[in-house]
Structures are given as C-alpha cells and as structure tokens.
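Retro notes - structure team

What went well: the batch runner handled both jobs without manual restarts.
What didn't: labels got mixed up in the shared folder, which is why I'm recording both outputs here explicitly, each with its sequence directly above its tokens.

Job 1
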Amino acid sequence: NHYLSSELLAEIISNDLVPITILDSIHPAYILSEKDKRYFIDKLENVEIDEDGFYNYIVKENVIKEVKPYLENEVRNVKFWRWVCDSKESKDNKAKLNILPMLYRNDDGVVATYDVPSKMFISDLYSGISGLEQFISENVDSPQFVSSLYKEDGIDRDWISLFKTLKVTVEYKDIIFKNV
C-alpha cells in the first residue's frame, strides 16, 4: 500500500522524523479530485495516514530496522520525541514506541548514547524533585537518566506522562521495587 498525501504525511517528512524511504506515497499531482482519491483508496487499496497508523507502521519488524538507526541521530531523535510528546494520540498508541531509542546520560552528567526508555530513570529536570537523581544514584548501579536535550526553554510539554507511557522509571516506589 501507498499513502495518500496529507498534512500529517507532509509534517512527518518536513520534520524528518523517519527515513523518507519507508514512506511510500502517491504524488499529489495524481489526486486532483475526490473521484481520484476514491479510486486510489477503494480500487488500489491505498490509505490515508493517521497518527495511529503511523505509530503502528514504524514499529513493524521490517520497518523498525530502518527507523531505529535513523533515530540514533541526536537532532532527529530529539525532534521525534518532542513530536510524540506533543501528539494528541492515545497513551496506548504512544506505548508502542517504547522500543525506539531515546538519549540518556549517566549519573556523571555525560550524554552517553541511546537505549530503550524502560532502562531509564527520570531526572531532576523533568521530575521537578531536587535530589531524585542522587537518590537513584545511591540505590542503582550505573543509572541511565533521560537526557535533558528533549526539554526546551519556554515550551511546556507533559514529559512525565510520556515517560510513564514509555516505561521510564518515574516514581520512587518503582525505583525501589525495580532495584530490590
């Protein structure tokens, strides 16, 4: 199947969220009327992309092999996770993305590399709790904290909700139970 041109598809491409090569789309010049659109959908079984479909598509086994290394680029990775955080998509759909790489830093403050969110801990910056990182560092060997690069000055995003959805360790009780 191919995707019909849409605002969402244009946004995904213009923000460079995933490799363009995985987004087989039909050039808008071929769809000049509603009749053309119906033909491409009904007869040729093409689809209009929505966020739910996009999330499902990029985690498919044959697609994720291209998406993971693509997101192991700092600029793209930060853009991608900000876009996901801003998305109005359901938590269930966002949870599907917990297998994609996220930037982390060690307790010494150095941004290290990428890993899946479930191996990470929330930092003081996102939690708003001073001393949380110190508590985690005292109770966990080599903790990985979500990088501060995702946070933008002056832009308020609900990072805690996204992190919980992605299984980043956020709560004190989870920190303790995870490491006992």
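Job 2
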Amino acid sequence: PRGRVGMLLVVPFRFSSGKCRELEFLVDTGAEVNLIRKDLVPSDCWSEAPKKLEFFTACGSPLRGGAKICNGELMFQARQVGLEGQELVRKFIGCTLYEADIVCDGIISYSWLEKNQIAIFPHRGCLMLEGRDFSYWLFGDQLEDTIEAWDTLEIPGRPPKVKKKKGILGPDKLSDKQLD
C-alpha cells in the first residue's frame, strides 16, 4: 500500500491465555515499542500498562492507545543459518504489545529487535536471530509454501508472496473459531 515502509511478516502470536492468532506484523525500525490493534486481542488477555504511554505517528500526529498491554510469544518458522536444506523448526520469542489505534495488525519495534538480537534482511524477506554459537533465519507463514524456492535463490530477492490465511490457529491448521 502507498506510504507503507517496512517489512511485513505473517506470524502466529500466542497470547498469555494460550489462545493463538495469526497476525500480520509490520517490522518498523522507527517504532519504540511493539503495538497491536485493540480488536485483535481477547478481552481476558489485556492488563494495565505499568506506565501509560503516549504515541505519535512519524509525522507527529497523536495516536490513541498506550494504556493496556498484552503479553505472549511470536512464533517464527526458523532454520539454522548455513543449513539451508534442513527442516524448519519453531522458535518462540516473548513479546509485550501495547494496544494502539493502528491500521495493520501489529508493529514490531526496533527496541524489541535489538533486545532479542534480531537483524532484518529485507532482501530475503526474513529476520535473523543471532545466537552465541549459531544463528537462525526467521520466516513468517507467508513463506511456508516458498521455502524451497528461497533455498535455491541465486540472486538476492524476496520470493513471491503467497496468499495468506487469517484466523485462529488450531493444533495443525487454521480454523474459523472466535477468540472470545
């Protein structure tokens, strides 16, 4: 969409209640905290923010939100760097999200990336979790059907987007069940 800057990743978010929902996150290096659209969070997963924050857009306009937070984990498909033929594993990374009046489902902030030692690789359409002994490529679900193509890319570039699915995650697949 016009005016959008950043990388989009579709990843499941597991709320502190154990409920899980697939969401589209904008990776925004200009954001100072992680955000989520209020209507996407089950009512029993909200708690008061330790300190109410005031938000402003990049152009300085006020943005509603900042009074509540939800905790949970982002679930990435991951593959150890250097082992491109290996099966994907799941990596869960803890995340606190502030409620905000935003258009996208959620926003991942620079400070969260830095705290978790995660680098952005926009030309590959993924992130990298840097560890002491080894690192992992982190993929969103939109790449699930194109991982094989990604492994064989000879020219840096993002694989074509696959139509994403939205909904509540069941044990093995998406379902249409409601959150609340």
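One thing worth noting from job 2: The longest strand covers residues 65-80.
We'll revisit the folder naming next retro.
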